[in-house]
Amino acid sequence: MKFKIKQYQGRFRQRFSEKLYLYKRDYSKRWEKFLEKGHEKMTVMFIPHNEKRIFNFQISKFFISFFVILFVIILLSSSYAIIKNASIKREERELLNNYKDIRSHLLRFEKHTNKISELFDEIKPDIEELYELSAGNDGGTDRIWDYEMDKEEMKELNKMKTILPEEIFILKNLQKDLICTTNTVKTIKNFIDVRSKIINDTPSIVPNRGHITSLFGWRRSPFGFGRDFHRGIDIAASSGTEIRATAPGEVASTGWGGGLGYMVRIKHRYGFETVYGHCSKIIVGSGQKVKKGQVIAYVGQTGNATGNHCHYEVHLGGVAINPYPYMRKIW
Question: For residues 131 and 144, is the Cβ–Cβ distance under 8 A?
């Protein structure tokens, strides 16, 4: 078995060697023939018309082929360069047009950005004033604009400051101011919410429609000569005009009050108490819970009164105070 394998291997090597030899010989002949053809020379003659000496020279086919190939390469390269140059010029024109469009957009963007910045500068004093009204004068207004932007982001922007438009940094400042404004508005809203709850629970409206005829404090007595201290405010109105509770609370007492005629006394939160005098009719009873704006009586002329009106008093801690600051909201 081994002998047959070796015999086959020998035959294969012999056939491969023969074919390789034939291929090399054939290739060698073709190469020699190619060189022979290439070295063949052609004569080029230049014959002048003035019968002078004829100029001629010989040139091989290889040399002619070289120049032909060189000419084709130069021609193709030149064609490619011309086409490429035309393409680059088109791209330049397109880029120039795009640049003009971008520039016009940037100018509009700059205009709008500056306008927004100016508007924000205009409302800043109003925001500071609102903050002062809500927070008082205990901390100043400079701290509301204290907000630290992302350091890494600002660092990257500062690195590109020479190539980035200035509007980018204006917008970053506007973003900072907007965040500060949002925080301030939230603070003011919280303050107003708390104050609103207090205002809703304390006297803050006019008890009846009409016009004020007498204010709180010392006055000339309407019943004769001399002066007396008026503990409330008189609001004149036609008989039967509705009198409303100026704050939610509980009716402390109703009935005849001497010089005040028929009167209603209501207790409220935070030590406030209100009195409504000279009523023609009372429609609530002692111990009854009333809401702000609820009708409790009607205007009349009972007791010591020179005309139809409601005598309105506000007490705080048992002491009569001027009701006028608590009558800002009119029905």
Answer: yes
193 and 223 co-located in one domain:
no
- Closest by CA to 239, choosing from 298, 302, 282, 311, is 298
Same domain, 265 and 289: yes
pTM above the 0.70 mark? no
Q: What is the pLDDT of residue 38?
A: 66
Side-chain half-sphere exposure of 258, counting CA atoms within 13 A: 1
The model's pLDDT over 21-77, given as tens digits with 9 standing for 90+, comes to 788 878 877 777 776 676 677 776 767 776 667 766 677 777 777 888 888 999 999
Over residues 257-279, the pLDDT tens digits come to 999 999 999 999 999 999 999 99
Query: What average pLDDT does the structure give for the chain?
Result: 83
Query: Do residue 183 and residue 228 come from a single domain?
Result: no
pLDDT at 193 over 50: yes
Q: Are residues 150 and 130 in the same domain?
A: yes
Average pLDDT over residues 185-189: 84
Other C-beta atoms closer than 10 Å to the C-beta of 120 total: 15
What b/e string do you get for 165-192 counting C-beta neighbours within 10 Å, with b at 16 or more? eebeeebeebeebeebbeebeeebeebe
- The H helix count followed by the E strand count for the chain is 4, 14
Amino acid at 44: V
Give, in degrees to the nearest 5, the angle at Cα 215 between 214 and 217: 120
> Which amino acid is it at 262?
Y
**Secondary element (H or E) of residue 46:** strand 41-46
Token output for 323: 């009701």
Structure tokens at 277: 């005098």
Q: How far is CA 268 from the centre of its chain?
A: 44
